[in-house]
Amino acid sequence: MKTSFAAVYAGLGLALLASCGHDQPAVTETTPTAPETPAAGPATVAAPVPVLTSADVVTATDHDTLRTSDGQTVSVQRTTLAVWQKAQPDPLPALPDSVDSPTIAQTGGRVQRLGQALTFKAANGRTVTLQNDTTDGEDAVVYMYWGSLPKAHQWVANAWLYEGRAVVLIDQRTGQRTNIWGHPSTSPDGQYILASSSDLVATFDPNGFQLLQIRPGGPQLVWQRELANWGPAAVRWRADGSAVVKQEFGPTESGADLPPRYVSLRLPPARP
Question: Is residue 182 one of the residues assigned to a domain?
């Protein structure tokens, strides 16, 4: 089964989101000359200014950043397994494989499986249908109900594609349908979703992040960023609004697997 991620989305009628951004080259800032001081006192020497380094690297530093698709800068700081374990756990159940998540029974009939169709009834009365295509071709797709993100007012469906996978959000209020790259995680205040997708080997799916803001009509893309040197295996949020990411890496030249690493992302606020 072979197709590109973009080709399958075209077959599904899902619009791809904006193209990804890239880091700016590292720039060394020149330390300004200290002002002259009276002869009676010691000279004042300015502290060195650290060079901002791309966080799309295997070796992390304490002053890494990522440039997003809308030109903002995300601070990426090294952190620990202990910090990860204390962060907010994922509210979604296990990823469905061949059947819908049992949590579909908790939707009060608003989400239903009708043969090859998965239907969602929004609060405004709109019904959205995700229809399976089980033909043996590049447009094949099977939708499975994954679960709910109540703080963000979203139902989540996983789409198994001919090659790779996709994720679809259905707004519980309006029925807006939004395709995202991968696993959605909701911020503690319910105002944002950070979607993460890791695919370093097969490269069927995007490898990186998307940040979406929850608007009255539904989620809206704020920025997205693809990565080359590591993948976000999982994301958790902290109460202070930062996100903790479990990083995974591709095999080294010798074939060895690098252990996971944990970093904290300080996300800039969405622009009006």
Answer: yes
Question: How many domains would you assign to the chain?
Answer: 1
Residue 123 belongs to domain spanning: 5-24+50-266
Q: What is the mean pLDDT of residues 113-138?
A: 94
Which residue do the tokens 């989540």 mark? 156
pLDDT tens by residue, 164-183:
889 999 999 999 999 999 99
Distance CA 190, CA 147 (A): 16
In a domain, 68, yes or no: yes
User: Does the residue 40 lie in any domain?
Assistant: no
